[in-house]
Structure formats: structure tokens, C-alpha cells
Amino acid sequence: MTIIERSSSKLIAPERVSGREQKVLRAGFIPLVDASVLIAAAEFGFAAREGLALELVKDVSWANVRDRLAFRQFDIAHMLSPMPVASMLGLGSNPSSTITPFSLGLGGSAITLSVRLFDRMRDHVGIAEQASALENARALAVVLSHGKDRGEAPPTFGMTYPFSSHNYEFRYWLAAGGIDPDRDVKLVVVPPPLTSDALAAGAIDGFCVGAPWNMVASERGVGRIVAAKQDIWPSAPEKVIGMRPEWAESHPETVSRLIVALDAAARWCDRSENHDALAEALADPRYIAAPAAIIRRVLSGEFNLDARGNRRVIDRYFSFHGNFANYPRPSQALWIFSQMIRWGQIALSKQNMKIAASAYRPDLYRLALGAGAGPDEADIRIEGDKEGDRFMDGHVFDPAEMADYVEGFAVKAASAAQLSTDDI
């Protein structure tokens, strides 16, 4: 059953977008299930109801998406949640100011290791088939220590982009188990659709990436899923809609109508009775080009952890709308910034904190959907202090105590351990 639902916004769509505003938006995306809201907005009429047409362009890498947005080949883009933060801070090979007024949801990524590596963890430590994410990380640490003593080369792990949720979450998981991601393993960039093939070929020993590629690897019998995003930090933002700030400023009505359309699409995607239709749409070669059956299970949070029949069900593995999943909270941007500091990508300063927070624009979200559309609490809040929303290692993130937070980790980059806090 497919239900088309209107947003609760009071903004009424006109017959057409007027004046300087745009009616057709070119949007780049990577073939992942977390692009669902953007794809649904185009496929199921939500954008059209707001007088907009979305021209979706499938790309092959996040660097391409970044560059094509910067060079004005895209008006908006499906982006990794840290990409606007990195862009505003001038990080990366081609930084261009980027903001986000809308998150595409929570959840949807996981960490997968090769079957060979997981079997070594089982043999050395005797971990249970349903071991926790932290237990799996600690077991991997034992295997790596044993391999180092024998003179083995460190394993190679794939992530999607240096400034990605996957990089920071993979590092967080490794470090929680006592593994230094800069010394004990080798991290390389692998485009999401290539991760399963790279694992099968032995080019990498594991990866952290968005759905459905973890499930594809496990069902092929080449990978074992050892942690999900919810295990690391349930509220961690995954993907966002990115846009150039000057484009947003010159097209305010278009931005508002886009947010209204995405809000309606997110509500629709969150309803389980729509998941059959959504899975079929996503499976199309124009989008993800993966089996609809796998996508449907992913949407339900039903994981085949490996090819041996071990399963796990994660309630709300994807949250497309509920629990303010679309709200671009600046404290989440600041947590991303904290991980950039932790791993030596940038220095801590008051100015950098201000710039990092400015990448997430809740003011544009509230302008489009009404002041009551967002949460009642402050935009910058303490993260990880509530039951059901803990970090896997028990740390709590207080943006007002950024220096102490970064210093409190046992595993971090050497440069992060020597931060100057004179400007804090």
C-alpha cells in the first residue's frame, strides 16, 4: 500500500515558482538507501506538489559530488553529514562553502569485516555470534596484536571519504576497542558501490559504508557485519542535503519549498506500509541498482550478519523523519568538528567552532516548516547523555567542554593531544 502524505507545513505551493526562484533543481546523489527521501521526493510527487522538479544525477564518489556542487553543476546534493562542516572550515582538496538546512535521516550504515578476519577473531577470542559492537572491536584488537607480533602487515579497511560519518564512526569503533586507526590499520577510500567487490577480491579486509552494501557483502558470503551505526551513537547524523550558501540566499522561496517537499517525503518514507513501493523504486538501475528484496530487508532493519544464517533485527535502523531526524542540529555539527580535532584534521579554536556550527542551518528549516517544527530544546545541547542515545564507550559530548572532551580519549592523533586552548 502506498500512501502519499502532505507535510504539516502551512506554506502553500503555487502553480509555479515565481520571480528569481528555480523550478528545476539538479541534484547529485550516491546510490545508497539513505538517499531515499530525495529519491522519494522526485518519484512520488512530493517535489511536484511544491512546484519543483528534481533532476537526480547518480554519481560515483563523494569527491565528485562535492566538486560538482562547488562548480555549479548541481544546485543541491545528497552529502555526507560532515561534508558541509569540512567545506565551511576550508578542509579538503577543493573546499567550497556548503550548508545544510535538512538532514536526510538517522542510521543506515554499518561496519563489515571479511569472513577470514572475523573467523580469526572467533578463533583467537571465542566471541559469541551475537557479540556486541564493543566486544567485536576488542576481539579485533587481540587479533591485530597477535598479527603484529608475527610481523603481519596491518589490515586495510575501506571508508568512503576522509570527511565522512563512516571515517569518524569507523575510527570511533576501532579506538573504543583499543585500536589506533592511524597506526594499527590502514584506512583507504573506496566508493560505496565498490566495497563488496573490493572485499570479495581481497583488496580490503573490511569497510564502513551505508546500506545496502554491507548486506550485499554478507549475503554474498564475503563479509560479516560487526557493528551498526546505532551501536556507536544512535543520534549521529548520516546524510544531509547540501547547497551553496549564496544559492540559498538568492533562492529563499525555492529552499523553503524544497524543505517542505523533503519533509513530506521523509514522513512517507518513515511509514512501513510504504516500504515495498520505496524498495522497488530504489532498486531501479537509475538509483541503487541492488536487489529490491535486500533493500526491503534493510528498510526493516533485518540483517543477515553473514552467510551462515546469523541474523539481527535493529528497530528503526533507518529513521527518515521520527525523533526530529531531519533537524540540522548545530551540536551534531560540533561533534563532527570534535572528531576532526581528535584525528588531527584541524585545530581547536573559538573561531573554528563558530564556523563548524554555522554549516547546519536550523533557521532555514524552521522558516520553511514553522517555528514549531523543530525540537523544544536548545540547538546546541549535550549529546550522548540520555538513555537510548549513548555513545558506545560511555563518553558524553558537551560542546562547551570541547578541549576536555577531545583530551579525554585514550586513542587519538598525536596532534590532538597537544592542542593549544589559548583561543578557547
TrEMBL record:
GO terms for molecular function: ATP binding. Coiled coil: none annotated. It comes from the Bacteria. One of its GO terms (cellular component) is endomembrane system. SUPFAM superfamilies: Periplasmic binding protein-like II (SSF53850). Keywords: ATP-binding, Cell inner membrane, Cell membrane, Membrane, Nucleotide-binding, Transport. The keyword Transport applies. Its main location: membrane. The keyword Nucleotide-binding applies. InterPro entries: NrtA/CpmA_ABC-bd_dom. Pfam families: NMT1_2. It is found in: Endomembrane system. CDD domains: PBP2_NrtA_CpmA_like (cd13553). PANTHER family: ALIPHATIC SULFONATES-BINDING PROTEIN-RELATED, BLL4572 PROTEIN. This is NitT/TauT family transport system ATP-binding protein.
